Sequence to fold (268 residues):
Amino acid sequence: MSFLEQFDLDLGVLLSRLVSIVVVFIVGRWLAGFSRRWLAKSLQKYEMTDSIITLVGTLVYYSILMGTFAIVLGILGVPPNIIAGAIGIIVIVLAITLQASLGNLAATVNFLLFKPFVVGDIIQTAGMLGAVQEIQLFNTVIVSADHKTHILPNGKIQGAGITNLSTIGTTRVDQAYRISYASDVKKAKQIVTTLLANDERVLAEPAPQVFASKLAEDHIEITAWPFVLIADFLPFQKDIVENVLKGFEEAGIIIPLPRQEVRLLGGE
Fold:
């Protein structure tokens, strides 16, 4: 075989490989984009959050591109063991990077499968009370009543336990008011009862309860148990205290101040 014939053969092989690489790259790129779009539509049916849908789609997208790149390397003549080794190194690095977050990831899977809460629910967990704005892959975003955004690790939420105020749709607002022994307990209970009866946010069922719950050394404690809708929980909790305070003042109900006994020890 002459030199020119050998050159023509090598050039033909090279052109063939270049065409194969272009075709593989185009198909791989199209398949990656199609898979990401298809997954986004499919996962939306399961009420997953946008961040998780985006993350899963991105992982699938780049996984397909990585596979496409591996095929291209094979077409160029790179030995399969080197390609497999490079992919293995990448997987190991990712596994080490995500090792600390595996607990949070497991909690996320639990939240998505068993749904102890969903986006929009008002929950109390880890000393935090607020509305769930987003369930991310490792964290949950909660917005509290003061409009502060709190990002809590899902593993911490699962470990701390969850109180979901939105599951039933109503909740009891526990209130306690102190009055002095010199005040009329019956009148104080009537004031609180009337305020609750006149507030449209208080539910008729279960009926609110008002009773004397504690006889302390320097005060009597009046407890109120009204039930309200979740949407009214925070506004009602704020308003009822002011209304009771105003009603007590107008009726002459005395709210005792904290009392502290101080003894002075001295000698000659």
Q: What stands out?
A: The longest helix spans residues 3-44. The helical segments are 3-44, 50-75, 80-98, 102-114, 154-160, 185-198, 233-251. The chain has three domains: 3-78, 117-164, 170-251. Confidence is low (pLDDT under 50) at residues 1-7.
